[in-house]
TrEMBL record:
Belongs to the binding-protein-dependent transport system permease family. CDD domains: TM_PBP2. The chain crosses the membrane at residues 12-34, 78-97, 109-131, 143-162, 190-211, 241-264. InterPro entries: BP-dep_ABC_trans_perm (IPR050901), MetI-like (IPR000515), MetI-like_sf (IPR035906). Keywords: Cell membrane, Membrane, Sugar transport, Transmembrane, Transmembrane helix, Transport. Its main location: membrane. This is Multiple sugar transport system permease protein. GO terms for cellular component: plasma membrane. The keyword Transport applies. GO terms for biological process: transmembrane transport. Residues 74-265 form the ABC transmembrane type-1 domain. Signal peptide: none annotated. It is found in: Cell membrane.
Amino acid sequence: MHVELKSFSLNRLLRWTGIGFVILWTIFPIYWMLNNSFKKRVDIFTEQPSLLPFNPTLANYSQLIIEMDFLVTLKNSLIVAAISTIIVVAIASLSAYSLSRYNFKGKKLILLWVILTRIFPPITFVIPLYSLMGSAGLLNTQVALILAYVAFNLPFGIWLLINFFNDIPMELEESATVDGASPFQAYRKIVLPLVAPGIGATAIFTFITAWNEFLYGLIFVQSQELMTAPVTLSGMITEYLVLWGPMSAGGILSLLPMLIFVLFMQKTMVSGLTGGAVKG
């Protein structure tokens, strides 16, 4: 008995040690960036870097917001990420519902093309998308970025939501139809609330991907006032100088909208799971 208890305690110790290491490994880079954002440039380049800023300063945030107008950059990223997320979730939910509920000729081929499109890396689509945007006169606009992010994220959103729709019994919609609801009303009032976790997961994935995307933002937009956060932050690395302080401050500010969105969508996912359990 004593040996089993000792073995159990050792297993718990090893498990929690591993969990603690993973958490530390994940959080420490963010903490180090936060630490550097409050340091003076001289303190950042000391031979013995400190885990805490001894002389904290807001100069990096002041330079970033006032001189570099970084709030406009965050607004650009928020507009592009939010609109593309809304479009992807709306189209993906309707498309996934149709592919899940209806049988038609070419359905398997469409599903194959949906997943194949997502397999290719983003750089594969740069040249055709650039040509299309140029022909439509959309280069150097936020519309170009929104369309690019929708085109890249939509296939994965469809593929992800199909599994959620497949798990919902069709009898629920049939009962609603018998009670006088139209197919769209059954979809909107019965099925859609039950796939809220899937909607939340799709929205989180799309928003984070669009928010962090760098390649399309660098190629499709050239105006400084339209650049997104990743492109602006990369501009702080020059041939002769790296602005570590403002870049760290910009990284922290860029994390906040994404963190708020994820926390908000997590509540939606939890409420969807609870609602599905009650309705089931």
